[in-house]
Amino acid sequence: MELSVYTNNQFFFTYVRHLFDDRMKLTHIKDCHQFREAIAQATTRSIFLLDSNQIEDDTCFTRMMTETKVPIMIVNPDEKDTLKKIMMWEQSISGMLGVDIVEEPITGSQAKEIDGAVMLGDKHTLFHIGNHSIQKQGEEQVLSTLEFKLLYHLVHQDEQPISAQELADQLDTSEGVLYIYIKKVREKIEADPSHPTILQHLRGRGYVLHQSREA
């Protein structure tokens, strides 16, 4: 995933980079010519964050908005709640569009993969790594950033239990937040979230994600 930020506000760009740089390819656009080139070369893996102060030619900008299907979000860094909004958007943007998390591929005994997907224990639920989603009974549900990270780390555990504290540390969050997202993930992957059979907690051992081993 590539995030292009069109702004001449260095503080604003630095803040956005702090939020996204470790998980996305980030490009700083500083002039209209560079912006047009980036729009022309954009792919389905591109998203643009546009500082409203950069909009000088409304006709040109309107044409670009109607000619491209690439997501363009317009924000005003001068508004007092802009940074707060971006913090709130961070997870939904990443989850919706699929953030590129660079980690070792899951191979061999780690999981049964089908075109980039891991079949979970009930054999009816697929965890799609490439597009950060769950496919269950013909329906696809997009995962938020933390939901994806949670499942990704558990897949790498290869069905070995991991304690809540260790899992929270790996996800760089608190145990309280972890429990919330375990509940959210169960709602997406379990037939009965109140009686989980895929993402289980083993007393005294920790959490485990069951995967299908059949060819």
Automatic annotation (TrEMBL):
SMART domains: Trans_reg_C (SM00862). Keywords: DNA-binding, Transcription, Transcription regulation. Residues 109-211 bind DNA. Residues 109-211 form the OmpR/PhoB-type domain. It comes from the Bacteria. This is Winged helix-turn-helix domain-containing protein. It comes from Paenibacillus alvei (Bacillus alvei).
